[in-house]
Amino acid sequence: MNSLTKILRAGPIAGLAAALFVSPGVPTALAAPAAPAAAPANDVDRAVAALRAISTMRADFVQTDRNGQRLTGTVTLQRPGKIRFQYQPGVPLLIVSDGAALTVIDYEVRQVSRWPIRNSPLGALLNPDKDVARYARLLPTTNPDVVSLEIKDPRHPEYGTMTMIMVRKPGAPGGLQLDSWVALDSQNQRTTIRLSNQQYGVPVPANTFRFNDPRPQIRH
Question: What's CA 167's distance to the chain center, in Å?
Answer without folding.
Answer: 17
